[in-house]
Amino acid sequence: MGQPDNPIVGFDDVGQPIYRQQQNGTSDYGQQGYGQQTYYPPGDQSATGPFPGYDQTVTPQRDHPQPTQNSSTNGLAITALVVSLVAGFIAIPFGHVARSQIRRTGQQGGGMALAGLIIGYLSLAATVVAVSVFSYFVYVVDQASTTALSYPTSTYQSGSSGGQAATRTYSPPTYSSPPTYSSPPTYSSPPTYSSPPTYSSPPTYSSSPRYSTPSTRTGASTSGGSVTVSGADSQGFISESGARCNGSDNAVAIARTEGSDVTICATGAGGLYYRGARRSDGASLEIEFPTRSGTGFVAVNGSTTYVLTPATLTVTGPSGNSVGDVLEYWSR
Questions:
Q1: What is the rounded CA–CA span in Å between residue 11 and residue 18?
Q2: What does the pLDDT read at residue 18?
Q3: What's the rounded Cα separation, in Å, for the pair 272 and 161?
Q4: Fewest beta carbons less than 10 Å away: which of 4, 40, 262, 284?
Q5: Within a 13 Å sphere around the CA of 284, how many CA atoms are in the beta-carbon half?
Q6: Angle at which helices 75-87 and 92-105 pack, to 10 degrees?
Q7: pTM flag (> 0.90)
Q8: Is the dihedral of CA 184, 188, 191, 195 positive or negative?
Q9: What are the structural domain ranges in the chain?
Q10: Distance (Å, whole) CA 253 – CA 244
């Protein structure tokens, strides 16, 4: 009788034997088997249930490869950060592209790309606000200038007896042409002076002027010595009170023309006044505060100006100019 086949088909991972199962569920030794159970040889990692004789659950262990990390820094991330500091919102596209590349390649620089995006978007918002404020300022200035040039009608509210505010509208006056005047303005009273000039009665003559027009001029003396004008002394014309200085005032210039006698007098305080007399009718004139002009004098009486020089006496008024030759002239 031969030896029966060895019923042990293997051992598990802790050294326990694994027996071969018979079709009827019994082992070769006539013992009752373990029913329909499946046993696995040692080292088989596919089992997830307990092995015979074990109260523990075996969990298979598998090695998973760890992803490798790229230690290089993404160039576009650096570019995004630098451009955001220099050019503001221009860095926005660089930041988005850099973040996309970093997610795909695992490179460093995600923080720089994010910082570039934040700075870029803040710069964009600031630019939009600045442009909006500037546009509004230009609009306000344009409206103000247009309003100033168009002279719009203005309205204001004033209270009324019934307690309601009455609105009145006024338009600025418009002029098609400047106003014209047919005659010069007149004044109700002439200007007054603290000490008005006094005039003596002009002399009357029964005949024509005492002086005939000479054919030649005697010239003028400006040496400051004695008076060289005939019929005059240091105060003016002796026989012509209208052309003679008042009181003890002295003359600074004396002139005789073809039709009149003129004396420029000086007061004790250093002021000047003009005295002239027309020989044809004896009319006299006194003008305060004449001024020196070169070697002559200028006196203004209202709208008429008298300019006395060693050569001529020029009278300029509303009706035109009158020039008379000076026959004799003396000045200090």
A1: 5
A2: 72
A3: 65
A4: 4
A5: 19
A6: 160
A7: no
A8: positive
A9: 1-48, 75-132, 219-331
A10: 11
Residue 257 has pLDDT above 60, yes or no: yes
Burial zone of 220 (CB within 10 Å; 0-12 exposed, 13-18 middle, 19+ buried) = buried
At residue 32, what is the residue type?
A: Q
The CA distances from residue 285 to 15, 107, 201, 257, 311, in Å, are 158, 110, 11, 15, 21
pLDDT digits (tens, 9 = 90+) for 168-223: 565 666 666 766 767 766 666 666 656 655 656 655 554 444 444 443 444 444 55
